[in-house]
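Re-running the complex after MR caught last week's input typo. The corrected sequence lines follow. Everything else is unchanged.
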Amino acid sequence: MQNTIIIISLLFSALGVAMGIFYYWQFLHLEKQYKNLEREKKKQQEVMGRKMYELAILKELGERVGYSLNIEKIVDIIICSLNQFIEFSAVSYMLLEPEKIIFKIHLEKSVSHKFIDDVRERMLKSLSALLEREFKKSEIDESLAGAIIVEDINEPVRSFFNIPLVINEKVVGVLTVAHTKANLYQEEEMTILYKIVKQASQAISRLQEVIATEQSKLNSMVASMTDGVIMTDKDYRILVANPAARLAVNLPTQGEVTIFNFIENLGNKFDIRGKLEASVKLDKILITDEVLINDKFYKIFVAPVKSNLPMTKGEILGGVIIFHDITPEKEIETLREDFTSMMVHELRSPLDGIKKISKLMEEDYIRKDKKSYNEFIQLIYKDSSKMLEIVNDLLDVAKLEAGKLEINKEPTNLKKIINERLDYYKIMATEAVLKLDFISDQNLPVEINLDPQKISQVLNNLIGNSFKYTKTGGEIFIQAFIHQKGQDLNQEAKSKKLKWFNVPEKYNLTDFPSAVVVAITDTGIGISEKNQTLLFNKFKQFKASALSGEKKGTGLGLVIAKGIIEAHEGRIGAGSIEGQGSTFYFALPIVKI
Amino acid sequence: MEKINKKILIIEDEETVLRVLVTKFTHEGFKVFEAKDGEEGLAKALEEKPALILLDIIMPKMDGMTFLKRLRKDNWGKNVPVIILTNLSDDRNIAEAMEGGVYDFLVKSSWEAEDVVRRVKERLGIQ
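Corrected-run output:
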């Protein structure tokens, strides 16, 4: 019995010990686990902390990047933020520009020249590898900032980390951190650097896309403008130069142009650069009223372009130049001036003549000379008639333009008024040995609704012109016929075998309703092609008449005739061959009374 | 009026002005030749070789400026005094004419016939 108790006690003790060991072992294990967890937690906290740092920096960067596309500035900003969580002796970047490589190195601690050289070497190698291009040291535009160089600190580069800078999938440079200490820049730490750079690159790429879209919208709008438009940035680089601007100075409408192209082609006619500078400096729009470039007149506006963004409000972004073509207005102005001065001249000459003659007629020897005396009276009559004609014509034209030309239509026998005009001119015809004929269609309506007095005036003008411009032995034909709607006038005249000089397209009646056409054809000196374009234009005709020295009327008669015919809803036109003769016609639509 | 016996050529296309001048100068005793355009004028000038020419600017066929250029090419023609009769609207031609060698300008509407006579006499040194 005693033995059994001893054995059971021993067993229990063994169990106890075993359990104790077990628990102890468990306890140890748990503690380890617990310690692991602690460590884990701490690590996570660290990571969280870092992430928060990252976020804060990224946020700040995002804001700043949003307002500036200047890559240098952005990289500078990045560098400034880096020392908050990365240790370095030096941070630097290389940026690729068209003509050079920008190399900026910021020293956090003093280093030797050798250190910098080493960094530079490595970066250049990286850049070359990235872009598969060789770069020369001479291409580098270097700048240094931060701590001073101390030659004695002979520490080499022991840690080095490179990140490529990529914008819109293009490598534009490298960013580097370097330290004299070894074994820095492990993967973990470098992650944030990657992220920052990536974030900045993405932001820039996106912004560049947006700008490209907006730019192309702007470009399309500007390209289609009829005014020439040039936009420059504040360094006078051309951002936009639309076709109209290029054509104005004889530059090709495609391809790149620089401000120098414009400066060269403008010569001394317009100081484009000077105006841009002045406009920006004075901050106002400068207008140059009249600049003659290649036979065209332009009004040129130069204005500064300012930023409207909250951060950079008021900052000068560049300039815009607008070439506004005022040639048509200038032409009209010139024509009007000429018209006025010629009108004055035309009136003054006969008036002066009358004055001189009257003075002369006071002399005894004239009064006694019956022949001279009568001759002079005739001259007075002629001059005063001429003046009256001019004044009447001018008044008629003025009425026309004011829309006050009165037409009083009544049923009129057209043949009758034509015959009346013929009677009037018959004497002249005989004197000038000119044949004057009237031919009319059989089926011409007997009466047409028109203003007899005004149509007589038109006939007078046209027949009178034929007389003026046809030499002795010539012929004048007055022909009246019916035009059918839709028919070509020249063809109609041909088929009716009329005496006719073909009229140009603009005077054809193909789209005109059925009408009575009265055509006056002469075998006179005809009209040159150039002058044919002037025919019914007030200013041009007057000028041409006055300048030619041929005192054959004001030239306004045709202008007035046109006004009268158009007031009848009719059409007037002419065709001619210089040296052979001319045809002038007017058409009055047939309206069923 | 005693004969001055000097030849004078008047080239003017305005009938009235021409008649007045011709009458006046004839009355003053000049031997007057006339022409209505530059072409006729040039022919007469080279033929008659007048002592002085009164010239209008705006004329048909050949205007005053062209006449003057052609005249000055001739050996005799380059020395003959010319007085231009013009109206103010011919301003632009004035500078041109001065180069062509012209003695004087008379604006038609500001001068009476006798003023023209006086100026001609001055130029020819006649009392």
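None of the earlier attempt is carried over here. The longest strand of chain B covers residues 7-11. The interface with chain A takes residues 13-17, 19-20, 23-24, 27, 37, 58-61, 63, 87, 89, 108-109, 112-113 of chain B (CB under 8 Å).
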